Amino acid sequence: QNFFKQCESSPDLTLYTKKMTTFQSLFLLSWLIGSVFCFQSRLPHSKKVSYGPSTSTTKFLAEIQGDPLRAKSGVRPSLHPTTINAISDALKARAMKKEGLHFRVSDTVQPLEIAVTAGSFASEAIAKRQKLSKEDGMVLTPEEEQVVAGRVIGVVMRFDTLESLLHEKVSDVGWIAKYNEWAAFGTLKDEKEQGAVDVRIKDDPLFCVSRAECLLALFLDTVEVPSLAKANQTVPDESTIDFLDSDRIEVLVSSD
User: Fold this and answer.
1) At residue 9, does pLDDT exceed 70?
2) N or C: at which end does the chain have fewer Cβ atoms within 10 angstroms?
3) What is the DSSP string of the chain?
4) pTM (2 decimals)?
């Protein structure tokens, strides 16, 4: 499946790459290949991880002691914290209108440029996670990295669509307005003005994280799970939404 068919329709990608540096183009392509691979892998996902031929990376992994009990059990660390952190960072960067970053298609901004922006947040988040992995002994596998990257890119490129869906779902539930629980979902009662949303994201870290969590949940439920089911494929964590409380899951996640 073409990545951009999953994100939004776009014409000639060659036209877009002409406007970008070689580094940007290569960087984007590497992330797109990774994100598509996580949806198309035809290999069964085993509890045991193989890193292929011996390299400097595998030697580094072999030297890590980590938690012997967790390593023996084969339980892998959750991919969600890294993904949610990256989405939160993207939301904050958009709110701060950081120069050189693109989040919405316009006459001067093409989907490919948004993908480059999204890929930069994924890359940074994964790098931070792998650095910490030296301490906890649970380095992400290449496939896990690809899953995280694919999700970050998928959510960021769909910000507008997912945010509209989030507000729609939350607005349809009476108890949220009655008890003023909008912030639990990272939403405002009225989101017609993007400026008000941006101010809240900048001023309230918990609001930002809650919004990132809900956007990821919607992406998994409405995009990733159906796509994988259609292709009869799976990913290492089986797209499990285990980072939301029961109330938010009931509001956001389909019961099918």
Assistant:
1) no
2) C
3) --HHHHH---S-HHHHHTTS-HHHHHHHHHHHHHHHHHHH--S---SS----S--HHHHHHHH----HHHHHHTPPPPSHHHHHHHHHHHHHHHHHT-TT---S--SS--HHHHHHHHHHHHHHHHHHHHHHHHHHS-PPPHHHHHHHHHHHHHHHHTHHHHHHHHHHHHHT-HHHHHTT-GGGGT--S--S-HHHHHHHHHH-HHHHHHHHHHHHHHHIIIIIHHHHHHHT---TTTT---SS-HHHHHHHS---
4) 0.74
